[in-house]
């Protein structure tokens, strides 16, 4: 799938699981999810849902932070065997989730920086910004992303779940790519069979543009009305 579809799937995926994990404990992590965690988790998952494509120099995420992400793209492609190989495996999702969780335990500042980067990736994937005036667009986007990150921090968002959210975002990416013709080698490097290969729709084809992307957008709107306590936000008469 294209970057915007992956980003949208990250938002939908996080919002969809909130009712099921709310108040529960998973792998020692207690999920007490309020409005701040819904917003933060949606953006983190949207950004994480683009990370597996860091193995392609032409992908949305590889273009997000200029020379830095382009260089990382070359490194990831070399480490994981090119596009849609190692970075599209369950092993990669677990490793990335563990590294992120360790980061969260190590430093609160490091988590905030990582959240800032993921939100920026999510915004780029969702199509914010103007190609006609890229410099001004990047400055404005950075300011908006910084403001969102700071607002989430000051509202007391607890990121103890961030490792699971990042791994979940990667899994959502895999599901999206398994629905396309190329498929995904989920069990790489032990078994390089591509699950979903030659079965699904064409990337950026009519199915994705006319059905998948609109459906994900509608799902976000519906889940927003379902999850957020709108009557409590309205002023009393």
Overall, the morphology is: globular
Count of domain modules: 1
**Order of strands across the main sheet:** 1-2
- CA radius of gyration is 18 Å
Q: How much helix is in the residues? A: 55-70%
Number of strands: 2
Structural class: mainly alpha
Beta-strand share of residues: under 5%
Structure description:
With 237 residues, the chain is mainly alpha-helical. The chain has one domain. 62% of the residues lie in helices and 2% in strands. It is built from nine helices and two strands; from the N terminus they run H-E-E-H-H-H-H-H-H-H-H. Strand 1 and strand 2 (29-30) form a beta hairpin. It starts with a helix and ends with a helix. Keywords: Hydrolase, Membrane, Transmembrane, Transmembrane helix. This is Membrane-bound metal-dependent hydrolase YbcI (DUF457 family). The chain crosses the membrane at residues 93-123, 135-153, 159-188, 209-228.
Helix-strand layout with pairing:
Blueprint: H1 3-21, E1 25-26, E2 29-30, H2 35-48, H3 67-80, H4 90-106, H5 108-125, H6 134-154, H7 162-178, H8 206-227, H9 230-233
Antiparallel strand pairs: 1-2
Which descriptors apply to this entry?
237 residues; mainly alpha; two-stranded antiparallel ribbon; 9 helices; 62% helix; globular; transmembrane helix; hydrolase
